[in-house]
Fold:
Amino acid sequence: MDLSYMKRIKFYFTMLGAWPYKELYGTYKEKPRKIPLRNYKTLFVLWIGVLLSGVLYLKSHIRKLSFFELGHSYITVFMNFIAVQRVSTPIMKSYRRTVVDFVLKLHLFHHKHKSEYAMKVYQQVHRISSLFSIFLYILMYVGIILFQLMPLYNNIQSGAFKATSHSIENGTRYEHSVYHYTPYEYHNFGYSVIFIINWILVFDCSISFCTYDSLMTLIVFNIWGHLKILKYNLEHFPRPRTLGDTNSTNSIMYTDEELKNVQALLKENIAHHIMVTQFMSQASKAFGPIMCFYYLFDQVSGCILLLELSAMDMDAIVSYGILTAILLQQLVQISAIFEIIGSKSETLKNTIYNLPWEYMDVENRKIVLIFLNNSQKPITLKALGMIYVGVQTMATIMKTSVSYFIMLRTFAEK
Structure:
């Protein structure tokens, strides 16, 4: 927990009331940090209210605004929906157990001492994780600032702050990053209140997107490291040698003493493989709903964002360009890294079969057979146990989003 990217994750999860302080207290002796109104139950109620407000705004303005103008609210309502789902995730025991097991068991920090290669892989994963975490949160803050300041700039340009009335008809309607239903007209003071509230909402929504994605990515990086270590250990499995003979091809069978070492190494590697597969099974229960709703969100919002960007003016590019880049980057990032794990686990089957089982006795051959049988199932994550998280699903979402964009663009022009 002294690693910079782990501190960063912990800080933002604390802001969402989602860090499992209670479960980690036995190890770190750190009491929960209680920030007023920052527990997941309060945030869940808050985001339900924001979601309902956005839906009511759409209902009351659906005949007053063009599809392009309503597109912004459609995107924010869908983002609100994802935020509701994510702030409620800490309710799940599987989520809290997954975070605890990642921190206390799976992280390569606990395995780096086992060999020189393990230390090498740990340092590689540590560098990748640090750079990735910094890149993601810089992108997040740039997105927050542009998403909030662009409507403010448009309000200044349109003269909304100087107008005595604010309506859609005379072009002096206030622009917001997130639109809320209000039963009456408001002026500059009301705008200022909504502007400040939106800063908080946009920040919370951004960290709910980025921090959960960051956690899943860090978990995948570490699992990838475990698979690399496991494959290396199997590829460098000791071959049998006759007494005083350094040529392994002259050996027919392992000696009795070598067989004891072989059995110990096989059990150690099987235990390593089981730890990874069991953790991924647990992570699927914790993050499966997140990925299912996230894929649904990408499917819907992708075509709307493309439609908004199709205006090809500076306002659209600044307002939606960074948001589109962040969402697309997260979709590609999550799908690609889970695909890497799946392909890496596939190579284990051949590596296990290439073990020198022909030199072993019957008992150890049975152990190798069990190991080979266990490795047939790829290590991957399923969204709600149905949809594989990977590049193929990502490509399908992108293709469908483009098709829907073309259809919506044709409809908007008519």
User: Anything to note?
Assistant: The CA atoms of residues 9 and 211 lie 6 Å apart. The beta strands are 382-383, 387-388. The chain has a mean pLDDT of 80. The radius of gyration is 27 Å.
